[in-house]
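Input/output pair, single chain:
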Amino acid sequence: MIFKGFVPDVVTYNCLINGCCKTNRIGRALELFDDMSKRGCVPNRITYNSFIRYYSAVNEVDRAIVMLGMMQEKGHGVPTSSSYTPIIHTLCEVGRLDEAVGFMVELTEGGSIPREYTYRLVCNALESVGKMDLLHEKMCRHVESGIQNRITRVMKVKPTMRLEENVENE
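Output:
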């Protein structure tokens, strides 16, 4: 890329890294990640989320957790629901429920609300092993309220979208 006069920026690197992660070319993605740093291009949350999703999908959740920690440590972005969700799902799948709850608590303490599916997944997994006590009632109320607020906001937009579709079809 550079030989042809093109100097990649963070968006370019993110596209390449994400593509490599989605096609299971993690070695190449890591090379690009290293190249990015050598060239003074600072990775952001999008960069790290590509690795987090990849490592979670291939059940290398510990590496996903390392990437999340690296992002926080280096100040390369604030993790959001998109950062935590793959990790929480994978931890539930492999039965590491205590850690899944810990990450869900960390997510909510950071000011985000997990997606409804993620919250239900954690609750159902805990219920199936009789560990619902790991979720504090106050946090459950906070998350459920946040999910309900999100649903309310979406439902305010959806009727408008339906109205626009009807106008276009006439």
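The longest helix spans residues 137-169. The mean pLDDT is 90.
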